[in-house]
Amino acid sequence: MGIISYVKEEIQVIRERDPAIKSNLEVFLYPSFKAILRYRLAHRLYLKKHYFLARWVSQRAARKTGIEIHPGATIGKGLFIDHGSGVIIGETAELGDNVTLYQGVTLGGTGKEHGKRHPTLKDNVMVSAGAKVLGSFTIGENSKIGAGSVVLKEVPPNCTVVGVPGRIVRMGDQKIPRMDLDQVHLPDPTANEIHELQEERIRMQKRIGELERKLQEITKTRTEI
Description:
This protein is of the alpha/beta class. The chain is built from five helices and 15 strands.
């Protein structure tokens, strides 16, 4: 794909997913637009084993945009990085098509692995603000990672993950993140557990009350006898 095709594709992706952009010209000011186009150039250099030049291009982009994409990463079509400050994508990370990343996201390694060290994100994955995905495992298609989550193990397709460490709190939700970018209305497993405990306490209090009344009736009957 030529540079003109990349430019047209990125303009379409950003206009589609960021309502703050009012014109195509504004897209050229968008940090992720600059970072992704420069990644494409750096990646070509990397594949040709021009490693120093590839890193030079990527580091210049990181200084200018706050988005650090290693030139060795493999990224599909339609990547959308909203705002993007603090986003880091490691060397062996693999991203499918229509992936969405928000500010502060890290696709990193654990520091203890060799070879494939970074995560693989399949098509239509959304990773919310501040989330960290660390290790050489796969995030399945259409999955969402909640804001601030730390994901350390594989996630099946069509799942929602929240928490530290990340826990799967919903499976089978097949809404495509490219069309559904809601980072807010995600399940809260802690709140759900507290609610369940409160309901259990109420049931126990009712049961204890019933037992106390029965005991009083038995005691009263024995006294009368």
